[in-house]
Amino acid sequence: MNIPKLNTERIKTNLKEGFNELAKGGFQKIFSHIDQLNIKKGVDTMGIDKFVNQCALMAAGSGVITGIGGLSTVLIGIPVDVINLVTQQFRVTMAIAYHNTGNYRFPFEDFFKIVATSLKADTGVAISKNVMEEVAEKILMGIGSKTSQRLIPVVGAVIGGTINYLFIKRIAEGIKDEYGQINDVYVPKT
After folding, report:
1. What is the reported pLDDT for 46?
2. Helices and strands (DSSP H and E) totals, the chain
3. Using one digit for the tens of pLDDT, what is the confidence trace for 70-99?
4. Fewer CB within 10 Å, N- or C-terminus of the chain?
5. With the C-alpha atoms ordered 14, 20, 26, 27, is the resulting torsion angle positive or negative?
6. For helices 129-144 and 71-101, what crossing angle results, to 10°?
7. Is pLDDT at 17 greater than 50 in this prediction?
8. Smallest Cα–Cα separation from 63: which of 180, 185, 155, 182?
9. Of 62, 52, 54, which Cα lies nearest the Cα of 161?
10. pLDDT > 70? residue 31
């Protein structure tokens, strides 16, 4: 039996191009589709820890779907998985920011500084295309390092779901740990 070889360099190049597109306007588009009032209501109803867990479970869902069928679902599912991971990361960041400040409305620029700081990207004075590209690259490194493990059908689902769940939980813990510094610099008081 002849097993076709994957052109991993081409896949990496395509993913990098996709993340550059994400940096050009995709982050802002994802941000604009998130209902900030519903995040406030979710945190008020469930509490911050349950809300974070809900986001982590939603991220795990796309990881399971991406890895369930091996190579075929990984190739098709990675873009959806990445969008869902970024969305859940943004939701968690907004929830923690609201929980710590009482403010649930953030302009994109202030919000993205929190995201960049939570990923330990160099934000400098203003959010620039370079900062957005650095954030996209950090997310890509977090996702891409475990993608090959998702290629095994069924086992890939368990691995994909676990990786995504832990990614969101780790992001939440990082934001909680860093929030004192972030709060002082970026989040306007209400």
Report:
1. 96
2. 8, 0
3. 776 767 777 888 889 889 999 999 999 999
4. N
5. positive
6. 120
7. yes
8. 155
9. 62
10. yes
DSSP label at residue 148 = G
Q: Which residue is associated with the tokens 């109803």? A: 45
3-class SS at 33? Answer: coil
Structural tokens at position 172: 């939440």
How far from chain centre, in Å, is Cα 189?
A: 25
- Residue 114 CA, chain-centre distance (Å), reads 13
Q: How far apart are CA 112 and CA 55, in angstroms?
A: 18
Q: CA 134, 137, 142, 145 torsion: positive or negative?
A: negative
Extract the tokens encoding 115.
Answer: 């995201």
What separation, in Å, do the N-terminal and C-terminal C-alpha atoms of the chain show? 65
Cα torsion through 132, 19, 82, 162, rounded to 10? -90
Cα–Cα distances in angstroms (integers) from residue 44 to residues 95, 138, 151, in the given order: 10, 31, 39
Token pair 């409305």 in the structure block, residue: 105
Report the SS3 class of residue 182. Answer: helix
Q: For 41-45, which contacts have Cβ atoms below 8 Å and span 24 or more sequence positions? A: 42/95, 43/95, 43/98, 43/99
Identity at 112, one-letter amino acid code: F
Buried b or exposed e, range 155-180, using 16+ CB within 10 angstroms: ebbbbbbbbbbebbbebbebbbebbe
